[in-house]
Recover the amino acids of this structure.
């Protein structure tokens, strides 16, 4: 058996909105599922509320694609719950997020040049 | 709701559930608890995710399998079924009329059944929320406190014995007062029941001591609805009937008392009755006397004692106190609490009623299934050519059958989903009705939880199997060669199946029709029953001065002032206070009769204190003697009026007027001055009990004092609604602090008597109309089918000179015959099924010939009508046009 080659970031672009949001939510801290949902809600001013099905379905796919991993590090003892699993962004995840951001930045630049967006 | 959401997650693919199931569930619980997402948001996300994850899972398996060169049959099946589902979806979308009709039929059937499941679950299926309910038994009669203590001491029979007495109490908190059901319980009650607390502490024996500060335990439901689940409730002081009570705990969720009939909101110690209640039920003496019988006693049997042994032991104990009563009274029975919980002696009735309702909706679903099978066969007949082509091209018969089944399942699933909405609506509608024994369906808090969700799912699958098998069988039996020949729709037995299905439909329909006919006739009879009073144009209002701790003087002043002002209202013909509203509530009292045989046991009379205009206000006729007047007041000679039944039973052969009776516990004889006709007291059909009326101005003591509940009856001559508003305004003006409730038309009380019959009739009528329509459609379908199938043959006959009338008769006969056969079978079924109705019929035999004959004739007429049109068309066919089709 040959080990599966890690995919290059470009092959995964463009990201689905759910994957992009989750990567963004995990960019600065490890979080559990509910925490991810809250962070996404905060980043989007409450416009996006990820439901449990979407969230964990996407997390499962992201784990398989190695964009994120489970982490054993627990945060402080307060607000901890044994049932919770914390997720951490991988270097690959970071590169994919950067590539997606670059793609979006390019799109945004072009949109500004043509005065579609202020 | 959260439970429903959690149940939904089970539909996600197993791989995802294994990896993230626990997190998913805790996510949902947390999101609901903190209200960060609405239930609807979560539900819609879950439903979309279920579809997406399953497609993803199947696709991934297929990719993997294809990569590995694996061709396992299960995978083929999955692909095949996915394809079939899409195919069936397209077919259904192509005939929206059929699809909508089919989904609607299924939705009503499945939804109705789901709602009935919820009702059955809440009443007869779900065990009481107590530890080991099968070891709990209730005394068949109420007991005095010393008796309860003696029973409780029998540790050789019981592990524990509790006593309970329920009644309305006014709870005042945060400045608002509310009348709720309260339970006075012995200190050990929650312990004996094995019910714990959610927060705080339970009641304990030390709380149940006379003259200590009163503590209470709230029910979980009430804590959540009234106090929003605020945990700081523990230690707070609320006022019950104006007395301070400290809340020490909240009972565990799910515990709603030991009776389906009442769900107490608060539990307080028995001894607190002396502080919270008023009148005779507040006297410390009631904890010593054996004469006040007020407690429901419940025991937990020791594991080595049977209910029968315990009953014998308790009965002989009771007899040892009452040696004179040996053989005089019925023997004590110990009723399993699971049965008693349904509402006392009527538990059997409740059970049968629920079974009846379930039967009605189950029948409807069956009829719907027969009808759908019929329609599907017609569809597959129309698709015969298509099926023939596919078979000729190499499709397997199994595949054709599978496709037909998939179509049925798709329909059933659509129907089942829509059925959930129907069930939610049905639960709302049911909430307005009552079961026998005055059990409010609303108070049962029917919910659509994971249990009902599962019931709906099972029903959907069973339904699909029921109506899907016959068409699938038919579709796979197509004769390839014959079907490819254009237009030669030769008989293949399909019409025989359809005829049988129509017969089944008609038979079941007749069962429902006769049922609703019997109920309708009995309701009409019941409305005709001589009630002994005339409720039309009468408004009642009730007060309960004791709840507000008013003194007797204030209560009397209020009663006098209110009567005077109401009497002065325009369009008031008569008005009077009474302690009892006919048909509503009973109060029995022992009376001594002058001249009764010495040593005989004094009889129990239904008793009421009434004002001078009472008989005018209720329309009860005076048969003999005189009515009360305003001169019959305290200090005047004590008088009484008895009912016809009382006069007949206790003054047989003598003149009741002039006789003397003495209220139990009193030492003054009242002279009987009049006899009035009997009035209905309890259920319809009960024989009227002996009744005695005393003047409202001559209190007799006991639980009918000035501080107890009293009712004002006002007979108007004009608009009842205007009168109701005027009475309400007047009574509030007199004293805004008087606890005033139930200002309603008298007819409302009478209406409640017939609630179960009305509910049964409403459901039966609705479903009868539905099934009649379905039956008509079915019969029409078969006749049309026969006419078309035989168009060629009929044309030849006409061409050869056959009489068109004979042709019409032929088609008519082929359409009506299955219906006639159905009616014959249905009559037998209905005769048997109507026995179930027996308990709910009033003055109508369950084999009432009029109902059976008119339902049968009606159905037969319907069959003729439904066949008439296709028969006429067949007879008018142009022979040449039909012959060219061959």
């Amino acid at each position: 058996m040959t080990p599966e080659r890690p995919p290059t970031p470009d092959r995964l672009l463009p990201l689905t909105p759910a994957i992009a949001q989750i990567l963004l939510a995990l960019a600065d801290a490890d979080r559990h599922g509910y925490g991810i949902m809250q962070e996404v809600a905060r980043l989007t001013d409450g416009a996006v509320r990820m439901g449990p099905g979407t969230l964990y379905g996407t997390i499962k796919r992201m784990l398989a694609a190695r964009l994120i991993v489970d982490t054993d590090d627990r945060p402080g003892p307060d607000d901890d719950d044994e049932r919770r699993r914390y997720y951490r962004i991988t270097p690959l995840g970071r590169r994919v997020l950067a590539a997606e951001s670059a793609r979006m930045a390019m799109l945004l630049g072009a949109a500004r040049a043509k005065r579609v967006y202020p | 709701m959260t439970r429903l959401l959690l149940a939904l997650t089970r539909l996600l693919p197993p791989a995802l559930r294994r990896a993230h199931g626990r997190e998913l569930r805790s996510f949902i619980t947390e999101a609901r608890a903190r209200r960060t997402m609405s239930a609807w948001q979560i539900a819609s996300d879950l439903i979309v995710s279920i579809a997406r994850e399953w497609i993803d899972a199947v696709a991934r398996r297929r990719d993997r399998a294809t990569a590995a060169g694996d061709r396992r049959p299960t995978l083929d099946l999955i692909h095949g079924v996915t394809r079939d589902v899409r195919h069936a979806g397209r077919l259904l979308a192509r005939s929206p009329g059929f699809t909508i009709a089919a989904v609607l039929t299924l939705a009503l059937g499945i939804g109705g059944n789901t709602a009935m499941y919820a009702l059955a679950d809440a009443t007869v299926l779900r065990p009481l929320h107590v530890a080991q309910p099968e070891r709990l038994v209730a005394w068949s009669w109420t007991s005095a406190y010393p008796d309860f203590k003696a029973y409780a001491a029998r540790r050789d029979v019981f592990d524990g014995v509790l006593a309970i007495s329920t009644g309305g109490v006014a709870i005042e908190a945060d400045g608002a007062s509310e009348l709720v059901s309260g339970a006075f319980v012995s200190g050990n009650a929650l312990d004996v029941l094995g019910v714990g607390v959610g927060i705080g502490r339970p009641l304990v024996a030390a709380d149940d001591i006379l003259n200590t500060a009163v503590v209470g335990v709230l029910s979980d439901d009430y804590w959540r609805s009234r106090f929003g689940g605020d945990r700081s409730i523990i230690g707070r002081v609320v006022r019950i009937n104006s007395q301070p009570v400290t809340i020490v705990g909240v009972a565990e969720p799910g515990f709603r008392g030991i009776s389906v009939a009442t769900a107490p909101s608060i539990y307080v110690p028995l001894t607190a009755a002396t502080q919270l209640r008023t009148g005779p039920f507040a006297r410390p003496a009631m904890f010593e006397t054996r004469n006040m019988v007020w407690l429901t006693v419940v025991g937990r049997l020791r594991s080595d004692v049977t209910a029968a042994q315990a009953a014998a032991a308790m009965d002989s104990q009771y007899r040892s106190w009452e040696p004179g009563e040996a053989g005089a009274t019925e023997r004590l029975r110990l009723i399993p609490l699971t049965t008693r919980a349904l509402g006392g002696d009527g538990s059997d009735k409740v059970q049968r009623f629920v079974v009846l309702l379930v039967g009605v909706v189950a029948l409807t679903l069956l009829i719907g299934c027969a009808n759908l099978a019929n329609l599907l066969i017609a569809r597959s007949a129309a698709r015969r050519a298509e099926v023939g082509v596919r078979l000729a091209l190499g499709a397997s018969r199994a595949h054709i059958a599978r496709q037909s089944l998939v179509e049925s399942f798709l329909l059933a699933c659509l129907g089942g989903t829509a059925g959930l909405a129907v069930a939610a609506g049905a639960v709302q509608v049911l909430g307005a009705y009552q079961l026998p024994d005055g059990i409010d369906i609303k108070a049962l808090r029917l919910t659509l939880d994971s249990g009902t969700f599962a019931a709906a799912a099972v029903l959907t699958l069973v339904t699909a199997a029921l109506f899907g098998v016959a068409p699938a069988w038919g579709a796979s039996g197509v004769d390839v060669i014959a079907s490819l020949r254009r237009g030669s729709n030769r008989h293949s037995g399909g019409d025989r199946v359809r005829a049988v299905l129509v017969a089944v439909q008609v038979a079941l329909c007749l069962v429902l029709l006769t049922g609703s006919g019997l109920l309708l006739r009995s309701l009409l009879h019941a409305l005709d029953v001589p009630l002994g009073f005339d409720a039309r144009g009468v408004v009642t209002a009730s007060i309960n001065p004791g709840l507000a701790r008013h003194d007797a003087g204030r209560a009397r002043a209020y009663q006098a002032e209110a009567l005077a002002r109401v009497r002065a209202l325009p369009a008031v013909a008569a008005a009077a206070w009474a302690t009892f509203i006919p048909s509503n509530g009973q109060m029995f009292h022992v009376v001594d009769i002058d001249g009764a045989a010495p040593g005989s046991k004094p009889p129990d009379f239904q008793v009421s204190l009434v004002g001078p205009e009472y008989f005018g206000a209720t329309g009860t006729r005076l048969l003999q003697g005189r009515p009360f007047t305003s001169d019959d007041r305290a200090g005047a000679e004590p008088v009484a009026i008895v009912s016809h039944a009382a006069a007949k039973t206790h003054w047989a052969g003598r003149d009741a007027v002039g006789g003397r009776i003495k209220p139990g516990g009193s030492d003054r004889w009242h002279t009987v001055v009049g006899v009035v006709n009997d009035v209905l007291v309890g259920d319809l059909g009960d024989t009227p009990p002996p009744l005695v009326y005393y003047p409202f101005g001559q209190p007799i003591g006991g639980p009918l004092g000035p501080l107890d509940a009293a009712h004002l009856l006002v007979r108007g001559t004009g608009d009842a609604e205007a009168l109701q508003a005027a009475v309400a305004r007047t009574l509030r003006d007199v004293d805004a602090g008087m606890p005033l409730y139930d200002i309603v038309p008298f007819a409302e009380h009478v209406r409640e008597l017939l609630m179960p019959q009305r509910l049964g009739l409403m459901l039966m009528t609705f479903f009868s109309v539905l099934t009649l329509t379905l039956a008509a459609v079915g019969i029409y379908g078969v006749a049309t089918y026969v006419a078309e199938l035989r168009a060629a043959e009929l044309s030849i006959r006409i061409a050869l000179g056959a009489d068109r009338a004979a042709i019409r008769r032929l088609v008519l006969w082929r359409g009506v015959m299955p219906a006639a056969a159905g009616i014959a079978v249905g009559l037998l079924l209905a005769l048997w099924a109507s026995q179930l109705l027996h308990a709910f019929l009033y003055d109508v035999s369950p084999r009432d010939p009029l109902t059976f004959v008119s339902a049968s004739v009606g159905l037969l007429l319907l069959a003729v009508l439904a066949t008439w049109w296709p028969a006429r068309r067949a007879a008018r066919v142009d022979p040449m046009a039909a012959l060219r089709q061959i």
Chain B touches chain A at residues 9, 12, 15-16, 19-20, 22-24, 26-28, 30-31, 36-37, 41-42, 44-46, 48-50, 52-53, 56 (CB under 8 Å). Residues 487-492 of chain B have pLDDT under 50 and may be disordered. The CA atoms of residues 140 and 344 of chain B lie 8 Å apart. The longest helix of chain B spans residues 347-382.
